[in-house]
Amino acid sequence: PILLTPYVDKTTIDTKKLDAFVQEAYRLAGLTPQDVDTGALILTGEAAKKKNAEAVSALFAAQAGKFVCATAGHNLEAILASYGSGAVRMSLNEASDFTVMNVDVGGGTSKFAVVRHGAVIDTSALEVGARLVAFGEDGKIDRLEDAGLRVGEAAGVPLSLGGTVSEDGKEKMTEVLCNSLFEVLSQGSLSPLTQSMMLTPQIDYRGRIDAVIFSGGVSEYIYGFEKKIHGDLGDHLGRRVRERALEMARHQSWKLREPEVRI
């Protein structure tokens, strides 16, 4: 099953909840750690930046058998997403010069990969995600990343832990997030805000894009498969991204395509 990364506070991952999650997954699978020969744990995105990320690696390595533990940088994340979504396969199955841009929109970051003929030729990453601001069951903010604060400021929406955000405020914030996402996707000039949110250099590739694919957690909303609200901006951001992508596709050479796998 998929578990949203649990946090004790802004800088600490909840290892107790992760431990219980792994134990339950083994139980459901009818396996024990001794049954596993090898595997991999890859820390990505915001989780990789938390102060106890190494402790999380140790926890999984101890429980899961002979695991290789690694932290994926933003560029590797973009590559992994392009394989997982099917973008690499799509570029192989189409014409020889068919070029796909995979945009993986997650909780804390968005990763871009340009793929042609089965090879990832360029990547980039941006601090745009659905869980830069997250809410508890009472609707109050219980997680607030630094990038979320910058987005709130740009949108004119005051944010603080324990505070609330109106539906109008969420719309304003996701408009800012969407604008930054499409500035990078469009391979054009970047606003000062988007420049401040770039985690890697901008994509250098300036050639033709034939298809754009979205993957990651937010893609479940972009393609209309997820209806449940997960206490973040995912539903608002997904709807806005889909509207923008369909509008752009009408005036661009590329088409919006569905991935083989979303989250």
Written description of the protein model:
38% of the residues lie in helices and 20% in strands. With 263 residues, it is of the alpha/beta class. It has a 5-stranded mixed sheet. A hairpin with a 2-residue loop joins strand 6 and strand 7 (119-126). Helix 6 (167-185) crosses helix 9. The radius of gyration is 19 Å and the shape is globular. The protein starts with 6 loop residues before the first strand and ends in a 6-residue tail after the last strand.
Order of helices and strands: EEHEHEHHEEEEEHHHEHHE
- Mean pLDDT over the full residue set: 90
Helices, by number, come to: 9
Amount of beta strand: 15-25%
Residue windows where pLDDT falls under 50 for at least 5 positions:
none
The radius of gyration over CA amounts to 19 Å
Strand order of the largest sheet: 7-6-5-10-11
Shape by Cα distribution? globular
What is the β-strand count? 11
- Largest sheet, if any? 5 strands, mixed
Helix/strand/pairing category = alpha/beta
- End-to-end distance: 11 Å
Helix proportion:
25-40%
What is the topological layout?
Layout: E1 7-9, E2 12-13, H1 15-29, E3 39-43, H2 53-63, E4 67-71, H3 74-85, H4 87-93, E5 99-105, E6 110-116, E7 119-126, E8 133-135, E9 141-144, H5 146-155, H6 167-185, H7 192-197, E10 211-215, H8 219-222, H9 234-249, E11 255-257
Parallel strand pairs: 3-4, 5-10, 10-11
Antiparallel strand pairs: 1-2, 5-6, 6-7, 8-9
